[in-house]
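Question (not urgent): is this output format expected?
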Amino acid sequence: SAVCSVRLILAIYHIHARIKYSAQRGQYLALKKRSKMGTGSRLTPELKEIIETWVNVEHWTPEQIAGNVQDVDVSASVIRLWARKGLIDIRKHKYHRQNGTPKERAVAQTRRAKEREIARLREQLKNDGELVRHSIFDRSQVVESRKQFGHWEIDLVLPAKMNNQRYQDTTAIMTFTERKTRFTVLVLVRSKKSSDMVDA
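Got this back:
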């Protein structure tokens, strides 16, 4: 176990030492994550029925539903995204005027501005050679076989969220698992901030 721990520390240090810090890349990743927050597909038949009822029957807006309905644990932007993709059937005229309220127009304008900024940063990072995509599907077959020691998987376990989509606790647990031996290390981190993650 001690040898594995030392190898883990050296492996992480070696990987971290090869990462070139870029403030621009950090800003791009932060904006991208924030824009996609909560867009994971968590739509169940029950949740679909709840949202459609509150919009089409009760005439509530996605903002009202996300902020007040306890059984709905997604944001208003996710509800609108599902509607645009045709995953839920909500009739917009049921809850606002054709052009939306001034607040809704301002929110949409802010979202579009963020999307433009993300696109600009992505293009600039590509041109500077700093944006390199790595996919788990590109990894070698030897990793899949679990026959070679030294291939690690890292994950983050987060606490449960409260109804307002905020975490009850900022701490989290980082998990490091060696694929061949299934040796696992758990590290408590103070928060999801990059500095705390690097310290862990």
